[in-house]
Amino acid sequence: MKKIILGLLLLVAVNVHSATYYFIGSQGGSLATAGNWTTNPSTFTASTVAPTSVDDVVFNVGAANNTTNTPLYVSLASANRIYNSVTMVNAGAMTFYRSSTFTNASNTLEIGSGGFTVASGAGPVTIGTVTSSTNFGGVTLRSAVNTSINNNSTNALTLQNTLASTATSNGAVVTFTFGGTGTGGYILNSGAENKSSSNTNNVQVALVMNNANATLAINGSSGFSGGFTLNAGTVSLGNSSGLGTGLLTLNGGTVASAITSRTVANNILMGGDVTLGGLGYQTTFTGNVDLNGGTRNILLGNSAIFSGNISNGGLVVGSSSATRTFTLNGTNTYTGPTVVTNVGLVVNGSLLSSVTAGTNSTVNVNGTIAGSTVSGGTLIVTGAGGNTVVNTGTATVNSGGTITTATVNGGLLSVNGTAGNVLVNSGGTLGGSGTLGTITLNGGSLAPGNSPGLLTAANLDASNGNLKFELGAPTTRGATYDAIDVTGLLTLGTNTTWNFTVVSGYSFQLNDAYDLFNWGTLDTSTLDKNTLLNALPNLDTANTNLAWSVDSFGIDGTVSVIPEPTAADLILLPFKIAKAAITLHAELTTELGAPYNQMD
After folding, report:
1. What is d(CA 233, CA 435) in angstroms, rounded to the nearest whole number?
2. Residue ranges per domain, the chain?
3. pLDDT tens column, 349-382
4. What is the C-alpha separation between 414 and 450, in angstroms, rounded?
5. 298 bridge partner residues
6. N or C terminus: which one in the chain shows less Cβ crowding within 10 Å?
């Protein structure tokens, strides 16, 4: 019973000594003057004591509470002011300041667990300095406990000096949560620190941004180490060190650089989808990124660079402008997907992830990736591209670049570097002037060169595909006309189709010869040469009497331009054939003698 009575007495004591005070300013602007306060907003009866650390204080800027000086300046006078909560109610500019004759130890406005609130329609509010006079000094906002800073107004809440903690317990973490529903936002011109200058204990400050409608602008350098958590809204970086030294947790919202590009060194835990940029400047993140086991959606408002290791999840990156780039410089170990749409992806480091180049995207691989799928975008490989699938769009392997294997289901794969085995299905085209493994055309097309050029393959099975050649002057093989070198087996068949295009306006001449193929071994057992002959460019013009010959194609892969046979040549052709046969018979008889005659 004694414990219960004692508890009731303590509760009564707390209630007796805590109250809500309303600032009326009837005796000036000092917060230390009791007559400037009332506990009865109906009668405005002046208080005999000023509020203390257990009390809640309310500022009504306007004639309704006998305060007529707007904007309102209130002074901390000669001491720190500590209240459980501070609330701004009505519209009107208000500034907290201190006299410049007081020391820095007397410049703290401290709030308790009740927090600092700007009501809807109130403000703008400044905690800091009256810049119009040198007689006014700065004020900083502090707290010894977890508290909130809520702005429900369309006007800004500005903290001109450092936000910090006055906690004294060693190892304490004090969290400031920026909340509210207004659009006016918050401005931290001098950033945030762990503690006030008089506190030597290991105290950490943490910041949380929860207001989805507003921007938290951190324009100064910060040294707090408890971490920054962004759940909603926008954090605007006016200083690269604005987010302190602790973990940056991104669960939502927007991180954007203001005034110029910024570099953020914090390690990052990404627990949700975020927007990067939107204020016109690029942001570079140099710390490591943990995707927390999920596939995170990133919307680029401006270009972004990540130089640390990204791990534990996957990324889907998009943008409203394809000119924005998402650059990965680090050795990244996440194995989930990397999907980009309407954005440029630059991989200068490495990825264990496979990349999907979606609609209107460009992927530049200067480093190493596990593989890629091109579905409406563009892939450019200068480094190592892994296994590649092209569905729609374009993939290019530059000189010096390499891919392991490739399947071309549609679009174009141009290999000017090196590639392993390539399967080209119906609707797909393979081109370039590089070196490849085995090429198999499964209804697809092979167009060697880059208008024109020479393609080299270990083996080529074109028995079920389309071969496309560009023919200009027969001056230089692989330079003025297309050609293919096959170091192993070349297979051509009845389902091989041919397509020839004349380039540079060239007019064919007598004895022009085009060495289309070189091979190690040739299989043309089912090739119909007439199909090849009929596909060659038309030479039947009024100014020429030329024809194509494919007679030596099966020997050296060459097609050539010969004189077109005359009508007399065609009439005499059977006789010429018979004469040739008789001549051949006589020559054989002479060389082989009686045995040949007997065989005959």
Report:
1. 52
2. 405-564, 566-600
3. 999 999 999 999 999 999 999 999 999 999 999 9
4. 8
5. 274, 317
6. N
